[in-house]
Amino acid sequence: MIEENETLKAGKKGNRALLLILALCLSAAAGAGIWWYQKNQIMDTATKYWFDKTAKDGALAGKTPQEIQGMLNSIVEEGMFNVSINARAVFENGSSKGSLGIENISENRYYSRVILRRDDDNEVIYESQGLKPGQYIDKIKLKKNLPAGEYPCTAQIIATDPDGLEDIGQVNVKLQVIVVH
What we know:
The chain is an alpha+beta fold.
């Protein structure tokens, strides 16, 4: 009788250990799955670069109907590529976010990405990832904490063919980056 009780207790301990091991394996598998999902975000099947995580669908707010109609009227042929970006990007300080207002308008047929360089030393201070037509990025953070001042810059906006994924052209836009404090 004592031997039966000890055997039952040993069996229960073995079952508990087995359940504990199973729970640990399931937790590890769930953690690995979450890590994998975060590292391998779903990408458009026809894309060679990740789309920017801060891009939002839609058009930037604050455009008048005349501005929108003007953009639509300017698309004369399929090969046109229109860009929209702020002429002045203002940052409260060198480490805060500022409004660059990058927009790949929905009427474009090409993907785009932006590289922002200082004109004085050609240093890249911001680089977006891909934007689909109809997406925009308003607020950005610079790669480097710049001291207060005005920085003449050039935004290189690169157009990429969504079918062949070849860079087909670029537009360079002059703008001012202003760091207030």
